[in-house]
Amino acid sequence: MVKTAVMVSGGGTNLQAIIDSHIFGEIKNCELAAVISSNPTAYALSRAEYAGIPAHVVDAGRYTNRASFSEAAHRKLSELEIELIVLAGFMHILGPPLVKAYQNRIINIHPSLIPSFCGPGYYGLRVHEEALKFGARVSGATAHFVTNEVDSGPIILQKAVDILPDDTPFTLQRRIMEEAEWKILPEAVSLYCEGRLELDGQIVRIKGARDDGSAS
Fold first, then answer.
1. Among all residues, which ones are annotated catalytic?
2. End-to-end Cα spacing for the chain
3. Topology given in CATH for the domain delimited by 2-206
4. Which member of 8, 45, 56, 191 has the lowest number of beta carbons within 10 Å of its beta carbon?
5. Where in the chain are the domains?
Protein backbone atom coordinates (compact mmCIF):
# COMPACT_ATOMS: atom_id res chain seq x y z
CA MET A 1 0.00 0.00 0.00
CA VAL A 2 1.34 3.40 -0.99
CA LYS A 3 1.16 5.90 1.88
CA THR A 4 -0.51 8.93 0.32
CA ALA A 5 -1.08 12.46 1.57
CA VAL A 6 -3.59 14.78 -0.07
CA MET A 7 -2.66 18.46 0.23
CA VAL A 8 -5.52 20.96 0.18
CA SER A 9 -6.34 24.62 0.77
CA GLY A 10 -10.11 25.01 0.46
CA GLY A 11 -13.39 23.16 0.12
CA GLY A 12 -11.89 19.84 -0.86
CA THR A 13 -14.14 18.72 -3.70
CA ASN A 14 -11.25 16.94 -5.40
CA LEU A 15 -10.35 15.40 -2.05
CA GLN A 16 -13.92 14.12 -1.78
CA ALA A 17 -13.65 12.56 -5.24
CA ILE A 18 -10.53 10.72 -4.07
CA ILE A 19 -12.21 9.62 -0.84
CA ASP A 20 -15.30 8.36 -2.68
CA SER A 21 -13.24 6.48 -5.27
CA HIS A 22 -11.18 4.92 -2.50
CA ILE A 23 -14.29 3.82 -0.60
CA PHE A 24 -15.72 2.19 -3.74
CA GLY A 25 -12.48 0.34 -4.43
CA GLU A 26 -11.64 2.31 -7.56
CA ILE A 27 -8.27 3.40 -6.16
CA LYS A 28 -6.11 0.34 -5.59
CA ASN A 29 -3.05 -0.26 -3.40
CA CYS A 30 -3.41 3.18 -1.78
CA GLU A 31 -3.43 4.13 1.90
CA LEU A 32 -4.96 7.57 2.42
CA ALA A 33 -2.65 8.31 5.31
CA ALA A 34 -3.11 12.06 5.72
CA VAL A 35 -4.80 15.22 4.58
CA ILE A 36 -2.59 18.29 4.98
CA SER A 37 -4.18 21.73 4.71
CA SER A 38 -2.45 25.08 4.26
CA ASN A 39 -5.59 26.72 5.64
CA PRO A 40 -6.76 25.98 9.21
CA THR A 41 -10.40 26.76 8.33
CA ALA A 42 -10.58 24.73 5.09
CA TYR A 43 -13.72 22.60 4.81
CA ALA A 44 -11.49 19.89 3.39
CA LEU A 45 -10.39 19.20 6.98
CA SER A 46 -13.98 18.32 7.87
CA ARG A 47 -14.18 16.00 4.87
CA ALA A 48 -11.05 14.24 6.13
CA GLU A 49 -12.52 13.94 9.62
CA TYR A 50 -15.79 12.47 8.30
CA ALA A 51 -13.79 9.90 6.31
CA GLY A 52 -11.58 8.98 9.25
CA ILE A 53 -8.39 10.26 7.61
CA PRO A 54 -5.83 11.92 9.91
CA ALA A 55 -5.88 15.66 9.21
CA HIS A 56 -3.00 18.09 9.72
CA VAL A 57 -2.53 21.82 9.26
CA VAL A 58 0.61 23.53 8.02
CA ASP A 59 -0.73 27.08 8.10
CA ALA A 60 0.74 29.06 5.21
CA GLY A 61 -0.24 32.28 6.98
CA ARG A 62 2.33 31.64 9.69
CA TYR A 63 5.28 31.70 7.31
CA THR A 64 6.93 34.73 5.77
CA ASN A 65 7.80 33.18 2.41
CA ARG A 66 7.31 30.19 0.18
CA ALA A 67 10.60 28.58 1.17
CA SER A 68 9.85 28.48 4.89
CA PHE A 69 6.29 27.22 4.32
CA SER A 70 7.49 24.53 1.93
CA GLU A 71 10.17 23.48 4.42
CA ALA A 72 7.52 23.09 7.13
CA ALA A 73 5.34 21.04 4.80
CA HIS A 74 8.36 18.90 3.93
CA ARG A 75 9.00 18.21 7.61
CA LYS A 76 5.40 17.11 8.11
CA LEU A 77 5.47 14.83 5.07
CA SER A 78 8.73 13.25 6.22
CA GLU A 79 7.38 12.79 9.73
CA LEU A 80 4.38 10.93 8.31
CA GLU A 81 6.61 8.84 6.00
CA ILE A 82 4.54 9.81 2.98
CA GLU A 83 5.37 8.14 -0.34
CA LEU A 84 2.95 9.93 -2.70
CA ILE A 85 1.69 13.52 -2.53
CA VAL A 86 -1.54 14.53 -4.27
CA LEU A 87 -2.25 18.25 -4.71
CA ALA A 88 -6.03 18.64 -4.76
CA GLY A 89 -6.98 22.30 -4.78
CA PHE A 90 -3.68 23.17 -3.10
CA MET A 91 -3.08 26.88 -3.72
CA HIS A 92 0.67 27.12 -3.15
CA ILE A 93 3.79 26.42 -5.18
CA LEU A 94 6.10 23.98 -3.43
CA GLY A 95 9.77 24.83 -3.12
CA PRO A 96 12.52 23.09 -5.11
CA PRO A 97 13.92 21.03 -2.19
CA LEU A 98 10.54 19.39 -1.55
CA VAL A 99 9.87 18.83 -5.25
CA LYS A 100 13.32 17.26 -5.67
CA ALA A 101 12.83 15.00 -2.65
CA TYR A 102 9.53 13.76 -4.09
CA GLN A 103 10.51 13.75 -7.76
CA ASN A 104 7.82 11.99 -9.81
CA ARG A 105 5.88 11.38 -6.59
CA ILE A 106 3.72 14.53 -6.60
CA ILE A 107 0.52 14.54 -8.65
CA ASN A 108 -1.44 17.73 -9.37
CA ILE A 109 -4.77 18.39 -11.07
CA HIS A 110 -5.05 21.47 -13.31
CA PRO A 111 -8.39 22.68 -14.74
CA SER A 112 -7.37 22.98 -18.39
CA LEU A 113 -5.81 20.90 -21.13
CA ILE A 114 -2.14 21.66 -20.55
CA PRO A 115 -0.28 23.36 -22.26
CA SER A 116 -3.29 25.69 -22.70
CA PHE A 117 -4.24 28.17 -19.97
CA CYS A 118 -1.61 27.13 -17.47
CA GLY A 119 1.52 28.36 -15.74
CA PRO A 120 2.14 31.02 -13.08
CA GLY A 121 -1.04 32.86 -12.12
CA TYR A 122 -3.38 30.41 -13.84
CA TYR A 123 -5.53 29.00 -11.07
CA GLY A 124 -9.13 29.14 -9.93
CA LEU A 125 -11.58 31.06 -12.10
CA ARG A 126 -8.84 32.78 -14.08
CA VAL A 127 -8.21 29.58 -16.05
CA HIS A 128 -11.83 29.48 -17.21
CA GLU A 129 -12.07 33.23 -17.78
CA GLU A 130 -9.09 33.05 -20.14
CA ALA A 131 -10.48 30.02 -21.99
CA LEU A 132 -13.76 31.86 -22.61
CA LYS A 133 -11.99 35.09 -23.55
CA PHE A 134 -9.87 33.21 -26.08
CA GLY A 135 -12.93 31.64 -27.65
CA ALA A 136 -11.81 28.08 -27.03
CA ARG A 137 -14.32 25.41 -27.99
CA VAL A 138 -12.88 22.76 -25.68
CA SER A 139 -11.24 22.80 -22.27
CA GLY A 140 -10.88 20.11 -19.63
CA ALA A 141 -8.48 18.94 -16.94
CA THR A 142 -4.98 17.51 -16.69
CA ALA A 143 -3.45 15.25 -14.04
CA HIS A 144 0.32 15.63 -14.13
CA PHE A 145 3.48 15.15 -12.14
CA VAL A 146 4.84 18.27 -10.45
CA THR A 147 8.18 19.81 -11.37
CA ASN A 148 9.77 23.12 -10.43
CA GLU A 149 8.27 24.73 -13.54
CA VAL A 150 4.59 25.42 -12.85
CA ASP A 151 2.17 23.13 -14.76
CA SER A 152 4.97 21.73 -16.92
CA GLY A 153 5.46 18.28 -15.46
CA PRO A 154 4.80 15.05 -17.37
CA ILE A 155 1.12 14.55 -18.20
CA ILE A 156 -0.52 11.44 -16.75
CA LEU A 157 -4.13 11.83 -17.91
CA GLN A 158 -6.28 14.43 -19.65
CA LYS A 159 -10.01 14.66 -20.23
CA ALA A 160 -11.71 17.15 -22.56
CA VAL A 161 -14.91 19.04 -21.80
CA ASP A 162 -16.84 21.00 -24.43
CA ILE A 163 -17.32 24.71 -23.83
CA LEU A 164 -20.95 25.69 -24.35
CA PRO A 165 -22.10 28.96 -25.96
CA ASP A 166 -23.74 30.20 -22.77
CA ASP A 167 -20.96 29.18 -20.39
CA THR A 168 -19.71 31.52 -17.70
CA PRO A 169 -16.46 30.97 -15.80
CA PHE A 170 -18.53 29.54 -12.95
CA THR A 171 -20.55 27.06 -15.04
CA LEU A 172 -17.45 25.96 -16.94
CA GLN A 173 -15.50 25.51 -13.73
CA ARG A 174 -18.23 23.33 -12.24
CA ARG A 175 -18.65 21.17 -15.34
CA ILE A 176 -14.91 20.61 -15.69
CA MET A 177 -14.77 19.51 -12.07
CA GLU A 178 -17.69 17.12 -12.45
CA GLU A 179 -16.84 15.69 -15.87
CA ALA A 180 -13.05 15.72 -15.76
CA GLU A 181 -11.23 16.54 -12.51
CA TRP A 182 -13.22 14.21 -10.26
CA LYS A 183 -12.67 11.35 -12.71
CA ILE A 184 -9.03 11.58 -13.79
CA LEU A 185 -7.43 12.59 -10.48
CA PRO A 186 -8.53 9.43 -8.63
CA GLU A 187 -7.61 7.38 -11.71
CA ALA A 188 -4.13 8.92 -11.81
CA VAL A 189 -3.63 8.17 -8.12
CA SER A 190 -4.65 4.56 -8.64
CA LEU A 191 -2.39 4.12 -11.66
CA TYR A 192 0.55 5.39 -9.63
CA CYS A 193 -0.23 3.22 -6.61
CA GLU A 194 -0.65 0.16 -8.85
CA GLY A 195 2.81 0.79 -10.29
CA ARG A 196 1.42 1.26 -13.80
CA LEU A 197 3.12 4.55 -14.68
CA GLU A 198 6.45 4.61 -16.51
CA LEU A 199 8.31 7.81 -17.38
CA ASP A 200 10.26 8.19 -20.60
CA GLY A 201 11.57 11.74 -20.32
CA GLN A 202 8.50 13.97 -20.50
CA ILE A 203 6.28 11.10 -21.64
CA VAL A 204 4.22 9.03 -19.20
CA ARG A 205 3.37 5.56 -20.41
CA ILE A 206 0.59 3.53 -18.79
CA LYS A 207 1.20 -0.19 -18.47
CA GLY A 208 -1.78 -2.14 -19.76
CA ALA A 209 -3.32 0.87 -21.53
CA ARG A 210 -5.67 0.19 -24.42
CA ASP A 211 -4.76 1.24 -27.95
CA ASP A 212 -6.68 4.50 -27.50
CA GLY A 213 -4.35 5.44 -24.63
CA SER A 214 -6.91 5.04 -21.87
CA ALA A 215 -6.22 2.83 -18.88
CA SER A 216 -7.79 -0.62 -18.87
1. 110
2. 20
3. Rossmann fold (3.40.50)
4. 56
5. 2-206
